[in-house]
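Tutorial, part two.
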Amino acid sequence: ESMLLSAWNSRAKVLYSMLMTVAAFKKSFIFYENYKLEAPRRQDKASMNENQQ
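Running the prediction step on this input gives:
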Protein backbone atom coordinates (compact mmCIF):
# COMPACT_ATOMS: atom_id res chain seq x y z
CA GLU A 1 0.00 0.00 0.00
CA SER A 2 2.83 2.40 0.84
CA MET A 3 4.39 1.70 -2.57
CA LEU A 4 1.12 2.62 -4.23
CA LEU A 5 0.98 5.78 -2.16
CA SER A 6 4.52 6.80 -3.11
CA ALA A 7 3.74 6.10 -6.77
CA TRP A 8 0.71 8.36 -6.54
CA ASN A 9 2.79 10.98 -4.73
CA SER A 10 5.43 11.06 -7.45
CA ARG A 11 2.73 11.20 -10.12
CA ALA A 12 1.03 14.05 -8.30
CA LYS A 13 4.35 15.89 -8.01
CA VAL A 14 4.95 15.52 -11.74
CA LEU A 15 1.44 16.72 -12.54
CA TYR A 16 1.81 19.62 -10.13
CA SER A 17 5.12 20.74 -11.60
CA MET A 18 3.63 20.48 -15.10
CA LEU A 19 0.69 22.62 -14.00
CA MET A 20 3.04 25.18 -12.48
CA THR A 21 5.09 25.26 -15.67
CA VAL A 22 1.99 25.74 -17.81
CA ALA A 23 0.70 28.45 -15.48
CA ALA A 24 4.03 30.27 -15.58
CA PHE A 25 4.15 29.95 -19.36
CA LYS A 26 0.63 31.34 -19.69
CA LYS A 27 1.54 34.23 -17.41
CA SER A 28 4.63 35.12 -19.40
CA PHE A 29 2.70 34.71 -22.67
CA ILE A 30 -0.03 37.09 -21.50
CA PHE A 31 2.65 39.50 -20.30
CA TYR A 32 4.34 39.29 -23.71
CA GLU A 33 1.07 39.88 -25.56
CA ASN A 34 0.33 42.91 -23.38
CA TYR A 35 3.86 44.17 -24.00
CA LYS A 36 3.40 43.85 -27.78
CA LEU A 37 0.12 45.75 -27.55
CA GLU A 38 1.64 48.45 -25.35
CA ALA A 39 4.82 48.97 -27.39
CA PRO A 40 3.25 51.03 -30.22
CA ARG A 41 1.39 53.17 -27.70
CA ARG A 42 4.62 53.83 -25.82
CA GLN A 43 6.30 54.83 -29.06
CA ASP A 44 3.41 57.16 -29.88
CA LYS A 45 3.75 58.80 -26.47
CA ALA A 46 7.50 59.15 -26.95
CA SER A 47 7.12 60.73 -30.39
CA MET A 48 4.43 63.09 -29.09
CA ASN A 49 6.76 64.18 -26.30
CA GLU A 50 9.49 64.80 -28.86
CA ASN A 51 7.13 66.88 -30.99
CA GLN A 52 6.16 69.02 -28.01
CA GLN A 53 9.76 69.94 -27.22
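The mean pLDDT is 89. In part three we will examine how such features are distributed along the chain.
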